[in-house]
Each structure stands twice: as structure tokens, then as C-alpha cells.
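Explain this fold:

***
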Amino acid sequence: MAQQQLLLFILATIIVGVGIYIGILMFAGNNASENKEAIIADLTELGADSYSFVYRPAMMGGGGGSYASYEISDKGPWGPENGNAAYAIGTRSDAQIQFIAYSKSVDGGTVSITYDRYGKMTSGPTATGF
């Protein structure tokens, strides 16, 4: 009888341990997905900011029709980095701009989006490492 109780105790311990492990994996996967969605939202705001910059006249601090001199502002809700990611400009020309975000909570997680001069997304969001 004692051996049977010991066997049941060991079996129950293994089942609980596996359940906890699966729960941790599910939580980590959900966290990565939430981080990716938050980064995409931040990149969408960056796209809107850059679009308003393009159509602002140069004498008013804008781009005068070009992305060439656009920089990520510290004043926006995203800034060059926030709790979600660090943000950078990938490629840039007069007619388009690419933003790249490097996740702070998912190792190797990046998201990129490219916008044209009309503020339309021409590629992306492309997420890797999530």
C-alpha cells in the first residue's frame, strides 16, 4: 500500500510539473504576440508622424515633400525607444521611408514597415523572431 501511495505521489508531482511548464510556455507566447502588436501600433504612429512631416513646408520644420531629413522625434509617444522596442530608420529616400523596431522583450524580434510619400504602407508589417 505504501508503494502505491508513493507511486501516485510521484505521478501527481510529474503531472503538476508538466502543467506548470506548459502554462509558462503559453504565457511566454502570448507575451511575444502582445509585444509584436504594440510595436506595430508604435510603427503606425511613426508612419503618421513621418507623413505629416513630408507635407509640412520646409520653412515650417517639415520635409517639403521629402522624407530625406526626417528623424524620429524624442517628443512622440514612441521616441527612439520605449518599453516595447528601440526604433530606427532603415532605408529612406525622398519618396519612401522604412522603420525598423528591435523588440526589448523578445530576443531577436524585429518588425519593419515601409511607407510611401502618400502615407500608405507599401510593405509590412514584417515581423521576424516572434
